[in-house]
Recover the amino acids of this structure.
């Protein structure tokens, strides 16, 4: 019977892949066969969600698509695209008042969903005494009285009031109280005469303790907030209960309200409002949202909406009427407080309760299903939300926003004007524009004082495009910028529309336009870059732009403006903070004195570039912008002192000039060029990374000041010379540095201060376009191919570069995790999976348990083979390796399949009275037949029995070609050699390993815990340092005696410095073990005694544990001492290095002093002894192990929410520590399974002299590089993401 995997593979290509561009979730299941394939989509996949599964039976087929390795043969549409999911900054604005000063409007500069500080600043508001009258609906008195009389209500109020300092004690009584009130109110409303007009939910809102968990399915990016209590539409049993009794993983789209509890300290109102910020972003169907802040003695109600935040005064818990008003308003909000937009509804995946939703949006013309959120704006402002909807041949973009009703212009009217009578290429069009209504009532929200009214507006757009960071080459990106400038100046000149918010978010490339009749194409559209470069004007219907300008929310129409009068709109400071022109940001005509220097004349083209320009635009346009001997861009530098120019500029009235939009285009281009990654030079140098971080910080931290500000933090970017710019770019981008430098020279000056200023308002457009055209002509044969969507990492944030990946044409990434997986139960499953991966050139990863510090068992856009379900264990009375001599056998060998974990293996071995060399980890969770043995396999008992590779007798594995083979000393001995130390996921998928076992033998453990009351040890004189130094000295003798274990040395949990020894000696008697370890205990005790009287408080050594214990065997010690469970994952980076025996014997003091200063040291004496007695050439393991005595491991960790800058600083600390340890034995190596991601020479560190032989063997068994892992054999021929081969 053919497996369903086989059936999938046998489908015709068209049936398998069709025209789909998105990754679906697909499970292929057979009733008699448990293997399945799960295709996991990115968060923005169209109609199927990350947690959804489509079950495919014999009668069904499905199309799947997965990302491929990039290669020179791939088409542009197949290139890997991995945009960041970070939400973007929403445009901020400032409006000029009647004086020369300016004030910033309610939109805050630099506002993002993850800019917690900015959100919290706005979240705190002063209490409004009229809140309960203005913003809540009073609960009927009869209902309030009935609630007050309930004994359970009185009990919960009493419980709440008793809480003193522990806010966790508030969660249960508050949730129970609010749930009870909600049910009573809901029951009352069921009997209301106007029930049908109330739009009540099907069930009452219930309140759940959710403080331990992050709500799931935030639409874009990641949010880690944990609201204390959430209100959801019941019943409670619809949600998952965690082990601590809280409710876990409730999706954002199910949350109706939230409650934040504070016992004593903290601003509960601000924090509750910040949570509301995220909920309103995640719920486009919720214009307004109520939330509650509670303390033991009082509560406060908050209302959040696009017109701002309002908060009540604090009320005591015995004010039942006010509390009931909060609950009642969740069902019946007062007039003007719109809680729901009923034209948009969340749709969970079929059969997947609480799955990630898509949205169904009903417009006046159409119902759009499967809409996915791709952009989120500030919910306390315009609250722009952008959706993508899949259609038959192309996507549709739907944009919603709450617009200020007092604005003169709206986007739809401007687009009507722009495209009136003809379609202007390069500017987005719309299909539908409408005010959003609940039935006949427009969704309008007003501030009570009448100062602001917003209405919800919806546009269905006709055209789509991609972010500039998805450019396939530098030339493509520059062509899009050229056309942006040409289209923008055409808009301003011919349509009298000024965009005023040019940014990376609003300039797209690779546009895909909706069909348009030929007669509607603009006959007088200007020549665009493709026309210029080919030297011939295309017909109007084919004259498509390389750009798509979108989001005209802040655009102004100049039609009807009076001559010699500056329209009020142009005095408004508006734009996206990172890209806004300096004069617009500061409301001033100059930013530094340097800006009052004019030296760069209009560029003159040369050679072919000039010929192409004049052929398409004519000599008249070319000459029109040329300078004379005394002009700059046609303007005349003032004949006055610099200080006089500055004084005059300060008095000049700011207004928005065309050139300011051109400057914003420059900042957009600069930001994109900084972050893109060329295919030919993807690796960073320390210099380029440092310079990138400095330059990016200027973009990331730039804000729009509230007042007039003449100094702009981005000026150093304009001041930089060509060499500094080149230093911030990757090597292949060096020639681009000159272009950026030349354009910056033209952008820098403040032309409006000239006397007179340039006569042509598009003078800066012209200068930038000329420089770009000259570059494109000169570099036709060197377009600099890029890795589309891949961004150079920065220490701060991807904001403000990426928000949505594309505006409709591709998906967002879901991070470094597989999107495709096979849960293998049999060898057949693995073979089918590998054939599938090889056929479609998929990025492959192998996972058993996922214990890997470098993430080798995972990978962005990868196809995963998961072997965890293969659990067979066989104990052999006598094992004879395949192909061996008939008289050769091993008693009581054990064969474990790929999914077996060490605790499972230990249990089976122990039942037969046997011991195995295996991993020591919490829960015994490390895999016994995966990366542990393939990377070497260390253990506490390796000094006695050798490493894992020394105990492996035979492997079976599936190769890249799908064949299943056995390898040992007789069959494929070269591969057997390579598997023992060459690393996991490199040569094939191991399906089983056969190990030696040993009779159980007595095992003695030794434990010592000592500490000093100091955060740092004295390097040489302190007692703790002396204790450590002495142990380093005697380590050779201890490993010879069979001791193995570790010492942790570093800051303890109690603010002290702690030294902890854990060791065991196996197969030795109690007396033998004590004779070698007790003298050391005596030494440490003497240190404590000697320092107790003479030392200071922070040097006195305290010994809390010093003991040895006898166990019957290694398994019995393991069961008694190793925790049954442990961390699933942690935020950390590590370093490691092997230290040879001769170094320790000859220079132990230097070793101790160096190691004492590395962060979070684990000093592991698990080499030497039997490990050193094995010939270094007998396995593929790095020879450094055979000379080693000590394995050192150290690292840095951080909490969730730590900033990128702080993490980068910690990583720098780790790199410095690694360099110091490496310097102790530079010719040694590191343990592959506990590898640092920052090793400067991975092949040398992890494989040493064996690397070339390992690589040659890999080419024999995996010639197509199907198996590649980070820092593994052969990975040096691939980029860091293992997506593109570079050698």
């Amino acid at each position: 019977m053919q497996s369903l995997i086989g059936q999938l593979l046998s489908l015709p290509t068209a049936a398998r892949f069709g025209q789909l561009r998105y990754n679906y979730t697909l499970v292929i299941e057979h009733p008699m066969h448990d293997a399945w394939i799960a295709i996991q989509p990115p968060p923005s996949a169209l109609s199927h969600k990350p947690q959804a599964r489509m079950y495919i039976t014999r009668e069904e087929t499905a199309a799947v698509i997965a990302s491929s390795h990039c290669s020179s043969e791939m088409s542009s549409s197949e290139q890997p695209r991995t945009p960041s999911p970070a939400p973007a900054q929403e445009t901020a604005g400032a409006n000029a008042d009647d004086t020369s000063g300016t004030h910033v409007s309610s939109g805050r500069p630099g506002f993002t969903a993850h800019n917690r500080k900015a959100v919290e600043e706005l979240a705190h508001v002063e209490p409004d005494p009229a809140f309960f009258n203005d913003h809540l609906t009073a609960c009927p008195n009869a209902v309030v009285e009935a609630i007050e009389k309930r004994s359970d209500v009185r009990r919960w109020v009493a419980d709440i009031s008793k809480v003193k300092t522990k806010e966790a004690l508030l969660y249960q009584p508050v949730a129970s109280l609010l749930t009870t009130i909600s049910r009573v109110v809901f029951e009352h409303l069921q009997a209301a005469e106007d029930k049908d007009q109330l739009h009540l939910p099907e069930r009452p809102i219930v309140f759940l303790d959710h403080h331990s968990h992050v709500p799931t399915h935030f639409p874009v990016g990641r949010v880690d907030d944990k609201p204390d209590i959430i209100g959801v539409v019941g019943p409670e049993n619809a949600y998952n209960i965690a082990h601590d009794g809280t409710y876990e993983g409730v999706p954002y789209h199910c949350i109706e309200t939230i409650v934040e509890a504070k016992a004593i300290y903290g601003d509960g109102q601000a924090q509750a409002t910040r949570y509301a910020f995220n909920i309103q972003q995640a719920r486009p169907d919720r214009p307004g949202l109520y939330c509650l802040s509670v303390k033991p003695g009082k509560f406060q109600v908050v209302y959040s909406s696009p017109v701002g935040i309002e908060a009540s005064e604090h009320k005591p818990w015995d004010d039942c009427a006010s509390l009931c008003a909060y609950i009642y308003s969740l069902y019946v909000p007062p007039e003007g407080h719109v809680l729901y937009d009923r034209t948009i509804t969340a749709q969970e995946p079929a059969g997947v309760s609480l799955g990630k939703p898509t949205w169904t949006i009903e417009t006046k013309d159409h119902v759009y299903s499967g809409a996915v959120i791709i952009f989120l704006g500030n919910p306390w402002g315009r609250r722009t939300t952008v959706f993508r909807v899949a259609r038959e041949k192309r996507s549709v973009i739907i944009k919603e926003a709450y617009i200020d009703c007092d604005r003169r212009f709206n986007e739809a009217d401007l687009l009507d004007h722009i495209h009136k009578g003809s379609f202007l290429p390069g500017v987005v069009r719309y299909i539908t524009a409408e005010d959003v209504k609940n039935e006949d009532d427009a969704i309008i929200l007003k501030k009570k004082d009448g100062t602001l009214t917003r209405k919800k507006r919806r546009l269905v757009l006709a055209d789509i495009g991609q972010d500039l960071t998805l450019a396939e080459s530098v030339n493509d990106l520059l062509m899009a910028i050229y056309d942006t400038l040409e289209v923008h100046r055409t808009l301003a000149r011919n349509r009298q529309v000024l965009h005023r918010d040019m940014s990376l978010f609003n300039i797209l490339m690779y546009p895909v336009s909706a069909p348009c009749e030929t007669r509607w194409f603009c006959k007088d559209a200007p020549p665009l870059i493709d026309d210029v470069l080919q030297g011939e004007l295309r017909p109007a219907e084919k004259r498509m732009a390389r750009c798509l300008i979108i989001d005209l929310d802040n655009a102004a129409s100049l039609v009807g403006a009076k001559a010699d009068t500056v329209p009020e709109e142009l005095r408004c400071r508006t734009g996206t903070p990172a890209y806004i022109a300096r004069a617009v940001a500061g409301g001033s005509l100059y930013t530094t004195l340097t800006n009052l220097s004019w030296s760069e004349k209009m560029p003159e083209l040369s050679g072919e570039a000039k010929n192409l320009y004049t052929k398409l635009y004519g000599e008249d346009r070319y000459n029109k912008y040329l300078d004379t001997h005394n002009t700059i861009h046609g303007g005349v530098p003032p004949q006055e002192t610099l200080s006089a120019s500055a004084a005059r500029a300060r008095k000049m009235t700011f207004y928005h000039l065309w050139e300011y939009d051109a400057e914003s285009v420059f900042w957009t281009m600069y930001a994109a060029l900084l972050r893109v990654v060329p295919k030919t030079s993807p690796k960073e140098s320390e210099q380029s990374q440092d310079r990138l971080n400095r330059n990016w910080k200027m973009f990331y931290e730039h804000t729009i000041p509230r007042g007039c500000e003449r100094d702009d933090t981005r000026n150093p970017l304009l001041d930089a010379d060509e060499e500094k710019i080149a230093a911030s770019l990757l090597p292949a981008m060096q020639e681009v540095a000159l272009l950026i430098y030349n354009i910056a020279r033209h952008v820098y000056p403040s032309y409006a201060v000239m006397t007179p200023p340039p006569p042509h308002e598009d003078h800066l457009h012209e200068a930038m376009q000329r420089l770009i055209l000259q570059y494109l002509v000169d570099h036709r044969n060197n377009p600099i191919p890029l890795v589309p969507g891949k961004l150079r990492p920065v220490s701060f944030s991807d904001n403000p570069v990426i928000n949505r990946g594309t505006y409709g044409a591709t998906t967002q990434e879901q991070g470094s995790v597989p999107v495709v997986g096979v849960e293998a139960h049999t060898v057949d499953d693995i073979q089918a999976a590998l054939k599938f991966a090889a056929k479609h050139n998929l990025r492959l990863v192998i996972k058993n348990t996922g214990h890997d510090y470098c993430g080798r068992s995972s990978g962005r856009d990868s196809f995963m083979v998961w072997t965890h379900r293969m659990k067979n264990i066989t104990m052999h009375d006598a094992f004879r390796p395949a192909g061996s001599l008939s008289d050769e056998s091993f008693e009581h060998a054990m064969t474990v399949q790929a999914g077996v974990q060490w605790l499972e293996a230990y249990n089976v071995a122990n039942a037969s009275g046997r011991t195995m060399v295996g991993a020591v980890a919490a829960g015994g969770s490390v895999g016994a037949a995966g990366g542990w043995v393939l990377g070497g396999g260390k253990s506490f008992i390796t000094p006695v029995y050798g490493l894992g590779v020394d105990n492996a007798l035979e492997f079976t594995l599936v190769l890249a070609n799908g064949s299943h083979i056995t390898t040992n000393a007789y069959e494929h001995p070269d591969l057997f050699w390579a598997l023992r130390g060459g690393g996991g996921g490199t040569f094939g998928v191991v399906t089983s390993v056969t190990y030696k076992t040993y009779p159980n033998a007595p095992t003695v453990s030794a434990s010592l815990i000592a500490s000093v009351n100091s955060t740092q040890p004295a390097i040489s004189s302190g007692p703790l340092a002396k204790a450590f130094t002495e142990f380093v000295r005697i380590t050779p003798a201890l490993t010879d005696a069979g001791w193995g274990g570790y010492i942790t040395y570093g800051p303890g949990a109690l603010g002290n410095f702690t030294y902890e020894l854990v060791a065991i000696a196996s197969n030795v008697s109690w007396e033998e073990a004590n004779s070698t370890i007790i003298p050391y205990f005596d030494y440490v005790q003497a240190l404590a005694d000697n320092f107790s009287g003479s030392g200071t408080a922070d040097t006195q050594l305290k010994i809390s544990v010093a003991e040895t214990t006898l166990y019957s065997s290694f398994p019995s010690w393991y069961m008694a001492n190793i925790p049954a469970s442990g961390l699933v994952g942690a935020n950390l980076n590590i370093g490691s290095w092997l230290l040879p025996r001769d170094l320790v014997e000859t220079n132990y003091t230097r070793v101790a002093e160096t190691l004492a200063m590395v962060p979070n040291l684990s000093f592991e004496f698990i080499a030497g002894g039997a490990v050193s007695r094995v010939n270094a050439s007998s396995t593929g393991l790095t020879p450094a192990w055979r000379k080693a005595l000590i394995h050192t491991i150290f690292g840095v960790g951080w909490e969730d929410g730590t900033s990128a800058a702080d993490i980068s600083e910690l990583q720098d600390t780790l790199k410095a520590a690694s360099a110091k340890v490496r310097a102790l034995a530079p010719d040694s190596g590191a343990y592959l399974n506990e590898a640092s991601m920052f090793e400067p020479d991975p092949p040398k560190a992890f494989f040493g002299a064996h690397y070339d032989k390992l690589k040659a063997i890999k080419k024999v068994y995996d010639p197509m590089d199907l198996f590649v892992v980070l820092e593994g054999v052969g990975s040096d021929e691939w980029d860091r993401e293992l997506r593109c081969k570079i050698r």
Q: What stands out?
A: Residues 160 and 296 are 5 Å apart (CA to CA). The longest strand covers residues 367-376.
